[in-house]
Write a structure and sequence with these properties.
By secondary structure, this protein is α/β, with parallel strands linked by helices. The chain has a six-stranded mixed beta sheet, with helices on both faces. β5 and β6 form a beta hairpin.
Length: about 290
Amino acid sequence: MASNVNPTVRRRRLGMELRKLREDKGMTAEQVAERLLVSQSKISRLENGRRSISQRDVRDLCDVYEVEDRRLIDSLMQMAKDSRQQGWWHAFGDIPYSVYIGLETDAASLRTYEPLVIPGLLQTTEYAQSLVRGAWPETAPADVDKRVQVRMHRQKRLSETENNNPDLGPLRLWAVIDEAALRRRVGDAQLMIRQLEYLIEQSEQPHVTVQVMPFELGARPGVNGQYAILEFPDASDSTVVYIEGVTSDLYLEKANDVQKYSVMYEHLRAQALNVDQTREFISGIINQYADKG
C-alpha cells in the first residue's frame, strides 16, 4: 500500500477530471452510459467519487472522449490505481462512514454543528464507548470496540500532521455544540464530568474552537440537525457538506448548497456563546453534575 495516498480524495479528483472531459466533449452522462452499455448512475457515481474507479473504466472513458494526450491518460490511470488502494481505516474492516473518514483525513478545516452529542473528534474513549453501546444496542462488543478505535484514531488529526500529506498540519476544527449535547447524560455523572473537562481542555488548543448554543436562544439556523463542512488545502478539491444519516449519509458539493450551509453556520457562530463564555458555561454544567453525584 502506498502510504502517501488517500484513496477517497484520489477518487474525487479523478471523478472531477472525468466530468470535465465529458463536459468538454459536450456529452451527457446518459449518452456516455449508452456508449459503454452501463447505467447512467454508474457514470454519475464515478464522477462524484462515490464509486471505485478501475483503470479499465478510465481507458474506456478516455476512448469515448477521444483523449489523445498520452501523459494525461497515464496520469488518470495512475490516479485510478491509487484510488483503489486502502486508507488506514480499512484495517478496521467494514466502516459505514468510510467515505467521510477519507475526506476528514485530508481536510484542512472542519466546521461542525452537533445538536445531540459531543462531536466525535472531541469525545473521550469512555464517552464514545457508552454512546455507541446506547445508540446501537444490538451491536456486538467487538464491533463497539472497532467503532471506538476508529473514532480515537480519527482524533490524531487534531494533534499531528497527516502522514499522507506532510504539508497538511493539524485539522482546524470549529465546533458549535447545542446545550442538549452537554446535558444528555451518557454513562454516569463522573463520566460526563471527565468528558466535559476534556472538552474544555481540547478547546484550549489554538486550532480548536468550541462554542455552545444555549437553550435560551430558542430557534436558530441549523436547528434541524447535525452537519459538517469540510474544506481542503488543494483548490481543486471542492468543499463538502456532510450530513449523517441512520442508513446512508448525504454529501453536498454543489456551490449553491455549500453556500447555504456556510451562511447558516456563520449565523450559528454569531449567535452562540463566545469561547470564554462557552468554557464558563461548560464549567457550570460540570458543577451541576458534581452536585448530583
